[in-house]
Design goal:
By secondary structure, the chain is an alpha+beta fold. The protein is built from eight helices and five strands, in the order βααββββαααααα.
């Protein structure tokens, strides 16, 4: 195991630099343990109850107790947030709220950064939905194709000046089915698609296989 530990803004460094050398060494030892050990004992790293993915790094030196809040990103990446010396048994609520706020800011910034090098639409789709062939990309493409079909069907039907009920009667389907397709819901077979356009609307359609 070789985790990467990064600091979000300067909260941890501002805390670290004012500690004495012995405390600094203990902090570094614990961070090295977290970096190198796969299953870290709860003595040193524990999920903070009642939070969404915030952990506390637990450090003790003599009778002093220190806490560093952190979270995980992409499995092996540990992000350090605020740190403090614990004065009582109960963790200060203001420190917990600060960690929650910093975690939210961190992931919002990450989300915005992913758009920084996008120069075309294909790159945008890949960032938003993944590479071609992945589950998320396939779902996106299915949804967009359904949107295109529904909009083209509505447009063609209006140009033909017929109602959903009339189109359903001409093609042997139901008005509720036509309505469902025009609202971008459900699945449609290729044979039904061809029948709707060519038989019902007298429109030729083409299929492209890539």
């Amino acid at each position: 195991m070789n985790r990467q530990i990064i600091f979000y803004e300067n909260h941890f460094i501002e805390f670290f630099k004012i500690q004495d050398d012995k405390v600094k060494m203990k902090i570094k030892n614990v961070l090295e343990l977290i970096r190198q050990v796969n299953k870290v004992p709860e003595k040193f790293l524990k999920h903070l109850t009642g939070t969404d993915g915030i952990y506390e790094i637990r450090i003790e030196h003599n009778s002093n107790i220190f806490r560093i809040f952190c979270c995980f990103d992409k499995g092996n990446l540990v992000i350090l947030f605020n740190a403090f010396q614990k004065k009582s048994q109960k963790t200060p609520s203001n420190e917990i709220e600060k960690a929650k706020r910093l975690k939210k800011q961190y992931f919002e910034n990450i989300k915005m950064d992913k758009y920084s090098n996008i120069t075309n639409f294909e790159q945008l789709i890949e960032v938003e939905h993944g590479k071609i062939g992945t589950e998320n990309r396939n779902k996106y493409e299915e949804n967009t194709q359904m949107f295109i079909i529904s909009e083209m069907l509505k447009e063609a039907r209006k140009e033909a000046k017929i109602t959903q009920e009339q189109l359903a009667e001409k093609t042997g389907t139901k008005k509720s089915y036509i309505s469902k397709i025009e609202n971008g819901k459900g699945n449609i077979q290729i044979s039904t698609l061809i029948r709707l356009f060519e038989v019902g609307l007298n429109r030729r359609i083409g299929l492209t296989f890539l």
